[in-house]
Amino acid sequence: MAEENLPGESFFNRNFGIGSSDLERILNTALGKKADYADLYFEYRRNEGISLEEGLVKNCSQSTANGVGVRVLAETKTGYAYTDDITIENLELAARTAQYIAQNQQSQLPISVGHSASEAHDLYPIKVPVNDVSLDQKVALLYEIDKFARGLDARVKNVFVSLASEYKVILVAASQGLVVGDIQPLTRLNVTCIAEENGDRQVGSFGGGGRVEFGFFIDTKDYERYAREAVRQAILNLSAQDAPAGTMDVVLGPGWPGILLHEAIGHGLEGDFNRKQTSAFSGRIGQRVASELCTVVDDGTIPSRRGSINVDDEGTPTHRTVLIEKGILKGYLQDRLNASLMKMPLTGNGRRESYAHIPMPRMTNTFMLAGQSEPEDILRSVKKGLYAVSFGGGQVDITNGKFVFSASEAYLIEDGKVTKPVKGATLIGNGPDVLTRVSMVGSDLKLDEGVGTCGKDGQSVPVGVGLPTIKIDGLTVGGTRA
Amino acid sequence: MQSSCPLNALNYLNESWRDMERLELSQELGRDILAMARSQGASQGDVVMVESDSFFVTVRMGEVEKISQAQEKRLGLRLFFGSSSASASTSDISKKSIARLVEDTTRMARATAQDPNSGLPAPEKLAREIPELDLLDADARSIPVEEKIQMALAAEKTALAYDPRITNSEGGEFSNQFGRVIYISSHGFSGEYEGSTFGHSVAPVAAQNGSMQRDYWYSSNRKFSKLESPKKVGEKAAQRVLRRLGARKVKTCEVPIVFDPEIAASLLRNLSSAISGYSLYKGASFLLDKLGTQVASEFVTVIDDGTIPAGLGSRPFDAEGLPTNKKIIVEKGRLQSYLLDTYSGRKLGMESTGNASRSVGEPPGVAPSNFYLTPGTQSADEIIGSVKQGFYVTELIGFGVNMVTGDYSRGASGLWIEDGELSYPVEEVTIAGNLKEMFQNIEMVGADLEMRGKIASPTIKISQMTVAGN
After folding, report:
1. CA-CA 20 to 30 A from A285: which of A149, A187, A427, B229?
2. Model-level pTM greater than 0.90?
């Protein structure tokens, strides 16, 4: 973004009581004589949560946070300081603290100002953020959902509904003259219910959201679908049997099961692990890591998605990055530090949880492109296996590549037919090899509903995933029936 | 977007930051805020304030990689209007922002439902004195940054030098935090305490025949001088990563499982969440209505103690101003106490157990304090020695625990036990069962309890679980 486009100088002066000369001085203090790069990250964030349980909206809570982080890069080193009390004195103190990192620097190796392949976007032009919708309307929605869910089945014993909304404003000012801002609204509606029958209790949960307005949930009564799904899942699990244990063919349904990609390969392709050579994917660009049917991308530019952002938290516009093309490993996800050290392009994946955190390479929306097979044909091709359509969380050990993810709705497949529901089983596999065993890819690509949050090194960021129906030849299913 | 967005962003930031007049956090400020709220009609309320000063350094391959230093302040307010309530928090501690906080909280509280069980604890239950629990290491404030960096470097150096197969590292870290917590309630409680925590860790990477493994070790303590030495942390991390090299899958089977102390502690975490008052009144626990019954084997006695001097989970009073205490949670397998705060206690017709916990700006929840399984008499070697064929689990990954049903299925790695001895490393398998049965099937408890964190356990053996592999 060109500097002359920006009203930055006068705005700092007029509004912050921090003039451009102050800002420049702070960035210069941060740079010192030996650092390569410095940036300031200003953030204002307002979060609101409303929740219903036992038929009552008992809690409303809100938090407001603002602060600034000062970062200094010197070769592989990062100095960071932040404060939630924004004054010139505190900014200068933070700059001197962050500068400490560069003090013992031997040589000066100017950081290349990486160029991003993408133009700026406007992916979530929102008129009224959910935070600003009247509380009465939001409370009324929660009561409506409770009533609707309870009316669906008499076995529903309790319903929990929560609506979380965030309104976040960021501003990045960097030593090479970049000043970029973004407003990032985010909202999520969740319905959980507990069903009971003959003393057996089961839970079902469903939700959705994105960088959307309140109308996203109510215009087409999508909240009714969330409630129906939560109830259906809980009721289904009342009749589920124990999951099998052992290696078998697994069919993953479309959408949220894309968490497989996030865990099995996404984390392993983040630039930091690859620069340090601690990922099971280190040094494997150009090699086959998946069957020919698999093309996987990370795309931060899909309008209104939970995992999308106009710019990352270093001011780089987001991008569509091909990670795997027809089975061949193509690219990594980068932040500024790692792109520079690896001499690779910026991909707009430098993200952080808040001003209290240092950016690192993170995913945005990670999904597999659609294939040719009909989903019914995929199921029909399995003699004995597991069909998993919904999942809880997952985790991966980056270094040895082992990943797990836990099914919250799954069925046995017997002779090509979906038969009995089975209770949550954990699936476990090896990242660099699981996609090589993908033997069919469906035509039904679906992105998830917008509920994902990814944790790495203690930092949480919103993400999305997506998948068509796929068949994996032989994956370990961790049930109890040996 | 290109020009308008930064413009809007700056306007927004400006609005929130224009008021530069900062206030210091104090008990007096809390009382002033509650007085302001009362004048606007609030019937009850409380204020939580947290102030912290934190530092961390990470090193990697002998070089400093990241240094971060920060001060943070947060103020949270909860107000009751009759029996409806709401909470809010801010990091902007200024007059204008606090006035807005009171206004927002009032507005939100008026939108929530009347709930007869809501409200502060009865005044007579509040802590009358604030015990000195030795939670702060004030002298450690003067430890120079260089010394902290050296700690992290030394642990990593030890690990890297331990064995030629250790060729890489995810890095070493040293961190410390000094914090102050202030709690004021309109029932007359006014108290505060300070505390510190220190931690260091290292995560070496070892390689053999083209495949890599990573593991780590750590130490954390409220006193700087009580941390394990960098040498010890580095050596332990090295031993842990080396024993994983060459790991393989095993055939699907049902065998005895031995959990090392770190992993056994995760089962106690599951237990603490199942006996949380909130899980119970919502019907979201596999231990519903089990108070007074046998929920584990006779070898299981679990204690929750918020009063251990210098304990990582100790506090002089809980998040509602109630005294903390030591209590038996499970006695020889019998469930003796839930973990409750005032609200969840009222929902269940019981008294709070002094376990209220909250993040600033949220209503209270429940958390264990120092929560541990009391040690048995056997050594870890004796426990492993009792197993003919089995699995010694040293790491779990994933979230496959259903707290409503107790169904349990998680990714595991560790070492295979053959004829009472650790033989080869195992990975890419799951262990599965149901927590209800797993607790009943604990048939040995080790003597090796160490309070390395607020939740701790000795080595335990579970008679049988399903291992899923080939």
Report:
1. A427
2. yes
- Per domain, the residue ranges of chain A are 130-170+184-238, 245-478
Helix (H) or strand (E) holding A374, with range, is none
Specify whether the CB–CB gap between B42 and B81 falls below 8 A: yes
Residues of chain A positioned with their CB less than 8 A from the CB of B60:
76, 276
Q: Using one digit for the tens of pLDDT, what is the confidence trace for A222-233?
A: 999 999 999 999
Cβ-count burial B221-252 (b if 16+ within 10 Å, e if not): bbbbeebbebeebbbbbbebbbbbbebebbeb
Question: Whose structure tokens read 């946070």?
Answer: A65
Three-state secondary-structure class, residue A453:
strand
What span, in angstroms and rounded, lies between the C-alpha atoms of B461 and B267?
A: 12
Residue keyed to tokens 């149901």: B434
Nearest to A310 among B1, B14, B18 (CB): B1
In single-letter form, the type of residue at position B166 comes to: I
Interchain contact, A169 vs B13, CB within 8 Å: yes
Structural domains of chain B ordered from first start: 21-242 (3.30.2290.10), 253-468 (no CATH)
Confidence of residue B7 (pLDDT cuts 50, 70, 90): very low
Q: What are the tens digits of pLDDT across the range B98-136?
A: 999 999 999 999 999 999 999 999 999 999 999 999 999
Q: Test A393 with B170 for CB contact under 8 angstroms.
A: no
B321-B326-B327 Cα angle (round to 5): 110
Task: From chain B, pick out residues whose CB is under 8 angstroms from the CB of A308.
Answer: none
The answer on pLDDT for A113 being more than 70 is no
Among B65, B395, B428, whose Cβ lies nearest the Cβ of A428?
B428
Check if the beta carbon of residue B236 is closer than 8 Å to that of residue B163: no
Residue of B nearest to A234 (CA): B404
CB contact under 8 A, A356 and B86: no
Quote the CATH superfamily of domain A130-170+184-238.
PmbA/TldD superfamily (3.30.2290.10)
